[in-house]
């Protein structure tokens, strides 16, 4: 089964930006006034290409075959058995063959999120003779305990670590990693640069 993890905040803000750009492009086309409109379109295009590369494209994908790390300009595929270690700080770092390291862009944990997770993992102090906290169903209580003190990045790191250990226990072969350039990001950035150069030349 395939699971895709992204930065929800970055993803939502990126689509808000895309909607903003779409409205402004329509407005600039309707009220086109020559060089100024062309320069504005070029700037919007360049910024949108950057937003796509750093906010929309990055994702951590868990598949049956292995881990796919989609960073702004590269995609790395690691078979589960090839993963040697996983550490989580503000980002997830995956170590594989010959001490090589893959740093995943998403999900990340901020200091604020980690502090909140630590507070969530601390037992609530009960005062007085009677319990005032509602009793959670068993399934919800198990979920709360599983996430206690952990950020989203910690949880995803655990999923990666568990799948890698399971693959090694099954005796799967540690096939080599595959790294490729993300031609979509490169393409939109090249198109944006061309648009900016054209606007400068014409202006």
TrEMBL record:
Superkingdom of origin organism: Bacteria
Domain Low molecular weight protein antigen 6 PH: 57-94
Listed InterPro entries: CFP-6_PH
Keywords of this entry: Membrane, Transmembrane, Transmembrane helix
Region (Disordered): 113-137
Transmembrane intervals: 12-30, 36-55, 179-202
Basic and acidic residues bias locations: 113-132
Name the record gives this protein: Low molecular weight protein antigen 6 PH domain-containing protein
Annotated source species: Nonomuraea rubra
